[in-house]
Amino acid sequence: EKLALYKLNDETSLTHQDINKCIPISNEAQIEEALAAVLSGTHSKISQIVSRLQSQGVTPVTLLIAATNHFKILFSITTDPKGASAGAVALKPPVFGPRKEKLINQAQKWGPEKIKGAIKTITATDLQLRSPNQQAPQMVLVERLFIRLAMTLNN
Question: 109-120: per-residue pLDDT in tens?
């Protein structure tokens, strides 16, 4: 329907660029963007990305689950006794190409101690979100968590 409206009164043939313009950007890609900002230490972009995710209906719990999974992957890579490259190869499901290199770089940049601390902080925030006494807006807690994690890299 969106594609039909896009091509309305357009006599040219349909191209893959037309289709790409009509495909919505997935939430997963934008969650990856948020995690990339955290992992690179770019805390200034986090508020904007989190606001955009919230407006698209992404829940705080979804963000925490994604962050937990990503940091656990990094931890398994960085603690592999055969090295980070072997740790990336051992991942299930396997990771190849640019994503593999990106994960290895992130794991080496953070190191096992910072990754372990990040997982503890994420878990504490998750427990806080699930607490019946929790009063603060949940997405604000996640945003602050992401900013703290990004700043951890620079310390």
Answer: 999 999 999 999
